[in-house]
Specification:
This protein has about 475 residues and is an alpha/beta fold. The protein contains 17 helices and 9 strands. Strands 3-2-1-4-5-7-6-8-9 form a 9-stranded mixed sheet.
């Protein structure tokens, strides 16, 4: 049976269980089960390669011990084991306190996880289907990786998916332009399901990883934080699928909960790639972690302030931000002034509203900046929907090849030779300052619709109003005469 068929049949079985209600619960249920199978397959491989290796999961709780036998425990016995033995033990795994302790990864994944299934018979059927997938088989792992991407896409119908889902074409484009290299500390402070991390891993492996030391150097320099339990679990599983030996760098936490001033030189990073949640408000008290002039409950603004602080001198970042950040005033103005003083905000790619549809239709922008020198000029590039297509949609989503025009225009690593085009224009920092740091600058090359001469239009409007008044009077006369008859 193919991996795709196995996953589909697993989902069909879970739909029969009365305890699993909706896409979000089904995905959460699938995730912790896949996690245990994936980490057990990975453990078995590591045990062969390193005789001294020990699994972070106690023997009796390892997948191979309780799940591998298709005729193993089922029914009430299985449910009792999962609910009273497996979950409590994994939530309370003792930690050594040493870095690289994989028990922390397991404990963080199960910290807020929950078993929704009620039927032990259906649970056994799901377990047997999952056990058919060999995650040490490279071909099967690659096929499952594609399916896992589809599972992540399914989140768009599972609530506020826009909070932790970014179209893969957008993440791939941003990573390609930032061009991370092994050893550079790369941080996503709101990592969601790990899209920027997986794109960065793929990018570096294709271009720079030539030997095992490169791979170790690359993995050791990754940093990530995710606040919500489901996307955190999905991200950790995503890292295991992408051959990350220790995904413990993905912390289950709120980056904004730590006081701004407590982020010191030791916390500085080379690269920040992220799509921070926007449109949402942080819980009471979070804004007090920030200096007075940056205090707000708007999540995206707080993340932007923190990203500027976290970058090393010479560090670079690509961030997804809404139109509201570009034209907003008050704290937003002070943030943009701070950004342009501390960083070279060299490029803003303006995206059509439909890029994040159907789970969000807000206008978004990709901001690219480097810390260490103030902004002198900002290049704007207006990304347009392909010819023959009115908008992006579920059936016609944005793809990486749609960014080819922008990549060709970009001008290489040093951005040399950029020219104004019908889609690209340059604005000086002085002009931005004169506009009160309003970055919502429309494409000057776009011709405004010709609505005609205003004076002629006013004459026609007056004539139309006179004609309407005449018709109303005639209608009144006709109605009055009819009533007298």
């Amino acid at each position: 049976m193919s991996v795709r068929t196995s996953v589909k049949s697993i989902q069909d079985i879970m739909r029969k269980d009365t305890g699993v209600d909706g896409d979000a619960q089904r995905i959460s249920q699938l995730c912790w089960m896949f996690f245990l199978k994936i980490i057990d397959d990975q453990d078995q491989e590591l045990e062969l390669l390193n005789p001294g290796y020990r699994s972070p999961i106690p023997t009796k709780l390892q997948w191979r011990f309780w799940a591998a036998d298709p005729e193993g425990i089922t029914g009430e016995e299985l449910m009792t084991f999962i609910n009273t033995d497996l979950f409590p033990a994994l939530k309370a795994l003792p930690l050594s306190g040493k870095s690289g302790d994989r028990r922390r990864v397991v404990r963080d994944v199960f910290e807020d996880a929950y078993n929704y299934m009620k039927s032990g018979q259906l649970m056994r059927q799901v377990i047997n289907k999952i056990h058919e997938i060999d995650f040490n088989n490279l071909t099967e792992r690659q096929h499952f990786g594609d399916i896992y991407e589809q599972i992540l896409n399914d989140l768009q119908s599972a609530g506020n998916a826009g909070e932790y889902y970014t179209p893969r074409a957008v993440t791939a484009f941003m990573v390609d332009r930032i061009d991370p290299k092994p050893g550079e500390i790369l941080f996503d402070p709101a990592c969601g399901t790990g899209g920027f991390l997986t794109c960065s891993l793929r990018h570096m492996r294709e271009r720079y990883v030539k030997k095992p030391e490169d791979e170790r150097t690359m993995q050791a320099a990754l940093r990530a934080v995710e606040k919500k339990q489901l996307p955190h679990m999905l991200c950790v599983t995503n890292m295991l699928l992408h051959n990350v030996e220790d995904p413990g760098f993905v912390r289950h936490d709120n980056t904004l909960a730590k006081p701004y001033i407590s982020y010191t030189q030791s916390d500085r990073v080379d690269i920040v790639l992220t799509n921070p949640p926007f449109g949402g408000k942080e819980e009471d008290g979070i804004e007090s972690n920030f200096p007075k002039h940056f205090q707000t409950r708007e999540t995206a603004d707080l993340f932007l302030a923190l990203i500027i602080r976290l970058l090393k001198s010479g560090g670079r970042s690509a961030v997804v931000l809404p139109d509201g950040t570009l034209f907003g005033e008050g704290v937003k103005t002070r943030l943009k002034e701070h950004l342009m003083e501390e960083c070279n905000l060299h490029t803003i790619v303006r995206l059509p509203n439909s890029v994040f549809k159907p789970y969000a239709s807000i206008g978004t922008n990709l901001l690219f900046f480097e810390k260490g020198e103030p902004t002198k000029d900002i290049w704007f590039y207006e990304h347009q929907v392909p010819d023959g297509q009115k908008a992006y949609s579920m059936t016609k989503p944005i793809r990486l090849e749609h960014f080819k025009g922008c990549i060709d225009w970009w001008g290489g690593a040093k951005r040399k030779g950029r020219k104004e085009t019908p889609q690209a224009w340059k604005v000086s920092a002085e002009d931005i300052k004169a506009r009160g740091y309003n970055l919502d600058i429309k494409n000057p090359h776009t011709e405004a619709d010709d609505h005609g001469n205003p004076e002629e239009l006013l004459v026609k409007l007056n004539e139309a109003e006179d004609q309407a008044a005449s018709l109303r009077n005639r209608l009144k006369t006709i109605l009055a005469e009819a009533l007298l008859r």
